[in-house]
Design a protein that fits this description.
130 residues; 4 helices; 38% helix
Length: 130
């Protein structure tokens, strides 16, 4: 029993000595929030065309995610003017605008991107479930 107490005490002592006393470093960087707003008075589309545009929109987001440029995306659930959001990890606002201009929902007049520069935690990354 004494041996177990001595071993346990030694393990605790080693763990205390080996702990890093430095505080974790919190770094910040610039991202671009893109609010994807509904186009006012947009025309109704037949369901096949709407599904085609939505499929292209989803494929575009998937490509941006694979390229490391899209960190987070998703729709707002209240059906209001703001339909969704992207958080882009790109170097400039011009690059953010270029990515937005290539999205099928933007090209087809379904969404209007509103870009806001944002300063947030470096390393922001959301991993999709496999």
């Amino acid at each position: 029993m004494k041996a177990l107490i001595i071993i346990f005490s030694a393990i605790i002592t080693v763990n205390v000595i080996c702990q890093d006393d430095t505080e974790p470093k919190f770094e910040m960087k610039t991202y671009y929030f893109v609010f994807l707003n509904a186009v006012p008075n947009r025309p109704d589309l037949d369901s096949a065309r709407a599904m085609e545009i939505q499929a292209g929109h989803m494929a575009n987001m998937n490509e941006m995610f694979k390229a490391g440029k899209l960190r987070l995306a998703g729709p707002f659930m209240d059906g209001g003017e703001m339909r969704g959001i992207w958080i882009l990890d790109v170097a400039t606002e011009e690059e953010a605008k270029e990515l937005c201009s290539k999205d099928p929902a933007v090209i087809n007049g379904r969404l209007i991107p509103v870009i806001k520069k944002w300063y947030g935690p470096a390393g922001l990354k959301i991993e999709p479930k496999q």
